[in-house]
Amino acid sequence: MPPSSLRVVYAFAREMHPKTTDIFIQYGTAGFRTKASLLEHVVYRMGLLAVLRSRCKNGRTIGMMITASHNLEPDNGVKLIDPDGEMLEESWEEIATRLANVSDNDLESTTEQIIKQVNADMALKASVYIGMDTRYTSPRLAAAAVHGVMALKGTAKEFGIVTTPILHFCVKCRNDNTYGTPTEEGYYEKIVGAFKSIRQKLPVCGNYNTTLYVDGANGVGGKKLNIIKKTLDGELDLVLYNLGGNGGKLNLNCGADFVKVSQKPPVGVEHVPYQRVASLDGDGDRIVYYYVDESNNMQLLDGDRIATLLASYVTELLKGCDVTDLRLGLVQTAYANGASTKYITEDLKVPVTCVKTGVKHLHHAALSYDIGVYFEANGHGTVVYSDVTKNTIAKVAQEGDTEQRKAAQLLLSFIDLTNETVGDAISDLFLVETVLCARGHDVRQWMETYNDLPCRQLKVTVEDRNAIKTTDAERKCTSPESLQERVDALVSTYTCGRAFVRPSGTEDIVRVYAEADTQESADKLAAEVSQAVYDLAGGVGDRPTVSA
Ligand SMILES: CC(=O)N[C@H]1[C@@H](OP(=O)(O)O)O[C@H](CO)[C@@H](O)[C@@H]1O
Ligand SMILES: [Mg+2]
């Protein structure tokens, strides 16, 4: 039986943030994400849960980010950040789902059950950092989050509009003061400070040009770059587009996801042949690069390409430090272009791990290397360095010969420039710019490293997407019966063919991916596999068509 003060809390919840829908909502790959109008009670309850999580972590700070990332404006979402700045531990996802879906009448008893289940010490202090993206529905949801935190007597600190990675960074810093200062300014200080320090060591050379165009997706990332831009002292000339003014709508025909999936340049950005453009997503945790060539064709430099660029540069610096016993590895998902995997293993001779979609899986696998570079093809990724790595490099920076010290100091600044907590468009942008500048490369030279296999992604709507079960890091499907056989048969008729299907964790659809030696073949294979999914996995609506 809860104390009477908690009774008041639940009555308050019913009144202020009532559950107005019976639609089941699940904590998925990216937390809860759906129409903003269905989320208020969910966010309030996540405020309660964040307090319990903090109490289970000895009062360390937990983060709550209100965002639906690359989704369009009417959506929103919420996800929790664990004390080291990483995604919420998987075993709590089911608890979050349970708490979000109970009726208002059962909220009280369910919260009590959870307190017992996780053994939360309710006498402890609890701290929750709350951030939000630029959606017009975000302030209202952030207020619901604060109410949830206060209801269980936690302390809420609001960061206002920040990128998702800035919030992850602040949570980490609050719990580990060696990482930095837990404020937005502290983030700029560390990231931009490291970038400037590198630029002083690496003069601009070769074909590298300091002008970079940026597509801000009309979201928070562009706004933050606009603040940073003024402090760069000409080290990098950012030309910012899609900052949310002039009626530009969040993620609409722009942003990293649009560019990657549609394979088209965003609206709102000036086309200048061979000009490097970085395209961010709505909450600033993803980035892809592209340029248009003289025939106005877009050439995409996606997450796979950023991963190879960073991995090869860190390998180079490790050689410069004469450090040979640190294991550098790269982590990808099934969506990684086959040509990138071949280049990494055969040319860079770097080991590759393939894991299930979702950053938490990549991050976790990357931690098993001394230096783990992980990226989803869509541009979400970062680099993580073990303590042994950091100590080894710091030692070389002190004790090595002149050349070794130089390489080690560069690598230390490169580490400072990295937001190790999560993929971060702003940090990744500076990392990429650092490598291109160090090599004196323009965007064409970067593109020359390998040729992507043409690919296509499609969506198929089915009755129940969870009817599709997968194995082997989602590269093979085990149910419904005979679907994999059908996919294998289709793939075998194409040169360099590869295809797989998996249920999306963020949308109510099945995703189809295909690659082959030509764009026509990749498109056709994707369409044929979509038909197989439709036929064998309960497709709804119109059957996908295959163009001749
Ligand atoms: C193919 C693809 O891009 N999938 C995305 C997407 O997940 P799905 O489970 O595929 O819906 O959203 C996730 C969260 O942002 C991201 O981690 C992932 O890479
Ligand atoms: Mg995002």
Structural commentary:
By secondary structure, the protein is of the alpha/beta class. It folds into four domains: 6-161, Alpha-D-Glucose-1,6-Bisphosphate, subunit A, domain 3 (Alpha-D-Glucose-1,6-Bisphosphate, Chain A, domain 3, 3-Layer(aba) Sandwich), CATH 3.40.120; 188-301, Alpha-D-Glucose-1,6-Bisphosphate, Chain A, domain 3 (3-Layer(aba) Sandwich), CATH 3.40.120; 303-411, Alpha-D-Glucose-1,6-Bisphosphate, Chain A, domain 3 (3-Layer(aba) Sandwich); 455-537, TATA-Binding Protein. Helices cover 42% and strands 18% of the residues. The protein has helices spanning 4-16, 40-56, 91-101, 104-118, 138-151, 164-175, 184-201, 220-229, 256-262, 303-320, 338-348, 359-366, 387-399, 402-417, 425-439, 443-447, 483-491, 519-536, and strands at 32-35, 62-66, 75-81, 127-132, 155-161, 211-215, 237-241, 277-280, 287-292, 298-301, 328-333, 352-355, 371-375, 381-385, 455-460, 469-471, 476-479, 498-503, 510-515. The chain has a five-stranded mixed beta sheet with strand order 1-3-2-4-5, with helices on both faces. Strands 7-6-8-9-10 form a five-stranded mixed beta sheet, with helices on both faces. Helix 10 crosses helix 15. The chain is globular, with a radius of gyration of 24 Å. The termini are far apart. The structure holds 2-acetamido-2-deoxy-1-O-phosphono-alpha-D-glucopyranose and magnesium ion. 2-acetamido-2-deoxy-1-O-phosphono-alpha-D-glucopyranose binds next to loops.
